[in-house]
Amino acid sequence: MPGKTKTKVNVTQMADSETECFAIVLHMCVLKLPDINDYWMTDTFLTTRFARKLLSRDRFKGILYMLHINDNAHYVKRDKCTKSFKPYANLTVDEGICPFRGRVSFRIYVKNKPNKYGMKLYILFDAVTGYVLNYDIYKAAASNVDNSIQGIFERL
């Protein structure tokens, strides 16, 4: 997959590269490109050499991945949106398939769908805004979960 490289960053060397990393971030604020990998592009017509001269792309991504700018001593846990959002009167329950080919007991197969394998979801959402309030994963008929309409409504 492009752009999905795993990089091991040596934490002891990070202090040397932090200024270059922040310089590249400031450069990205001035020069906007569609993808972060474009700053290390080698195409002579579209290239910008600034980021490539300072750090390698994988080194930059590794530092960016490990960067944490919050003070955990002053962390304030926020409420979930469901506590502050008041849904309108019309709620809708719909079912959908989340594409998935992994090994789980509740994966389903639907022959006529574009994504034939997946997990079936029952989704409760506000009909006016489309905001998803809750969802439930369909459990296979072999389990002792009540999959009737009444059972689905009670779980949601």
TrEMBL record:
Q: Which domain of life is it from?
A: Eukaryota
Q: Which InterPro entries match?
A: PGBD
Q: Where is the PiggyBac transposable element-derived protein domain?
A: 17-148
Q: What is this protein called?
A: PiggyBac transposable element-derived protein domain-containing protein
The organism is Dryococelus australis
